[in-house]
Design brief:
The protein has helices at about 1-15, 15-25, 50-60, 75-80, 85-95, 115-120, 135-145, 165, 185-200; strands at about 40-45, 65-70, 85, 95-100, 125, 150-155, 170-175. It is of the alpha/beta class and about 210 residues long. β4, α6 and β5 form a beta-alpha-beta unit. α1 (about 1-15) crosses α3. The protein is globular, with a radius of gyration of 20 Å.
């Protein structure tokens, strides 16, 4: 579910759908020139389960995929053609950067102003991972001055987000933490929980010792 939302964000940003939709809703009508997602370079920061799903979903688009993770996945990279690189190389060489990281001491504030400035001019950033990974104020400044072309977030430092100036930007797309909010995903999580209970070793009353 999160991987599908991520690819949806990519298509929306590259085709400039948020801007086009706002234009029509406001009574305007003109062609807004965007880009195709096909054959562009996508950088995936964090190649766990969701990151891998994104790589697989991008296969039909013919994207060049750069991947960065602290773990090594040589078999997966060989299977999909994704190229493992360091973070600096990924940021500088990607048209779209998407984050799929847990939030911990090593990732908190990872995409600060310096890191954002390492991204290619006109690139786009997607965060469907965790809050506090991206410096939202620095991102807003770079979206305003055209340093970055667009961004899409499903998670925020504060939820609901408090930075209305960021939300109002025409090149910023926001959703209310809906990455896992599909009927299919919710059903799958419930089934996984039930399966975990069925296969866990729960002690019987006879095994429990009182004080």
């Amino acid at each position: 579910s999160v991987a599908e939302l991520t690819v949806g964000f990519m298509i929306a940003l590259t085709h400039r759908i948020p801007e086009a939709s706002t234009l029509v809703r406001d009574g305007g009508w003109r062609q807004i020139i965007g880009h195709q997602l096909s054959n562009r370079t996508v950088g995936i920061v964090g190649c766990g389960h969701i990151g891998k799903d994104v790589v697989r979903l991008l296969q039909p688009f013919g994207c060049r995929v750069l991947a960065h993770d602290i773990a090594q996945f040589p078999a997966f990279y060989a299977e999909t053609g994704a190229k493992p690189v360091d973070l600096d190389t990924l940021l500088a060489g990607s048209d779209v950067v998407t984050l799929h990281l847990p939030l911990d001491d090593t990732t908190r504030g990872l995409m600060n102003a310096r890191r954002l400035d390492q991204m290619a001019r006109g690139a786009m950033l997607i965060n469907t991972a965790r809050n506090d990974i991206v410096d939202e104020a620095a991102l807003e400044a770079m979206l305003r001055d055209g340093r970055l072309a667009g961004a899409a977030f499903d998670v925020f430092a504060n939820e609901p987000p408090e930075t209305q100036s960021l939300l109002a930007l025409p090149n910023f797309l926001a959703t209310p933490h809906i990455g896992g909010s599909t009927e299919e995903a919710i059903l799958a999580m419930g089934r996984a929980a039930i399966d975990g209970l069925e296969h866990s070793q729960v002690p019987s009353f006879g095994d429990l010792k009182g004080p």
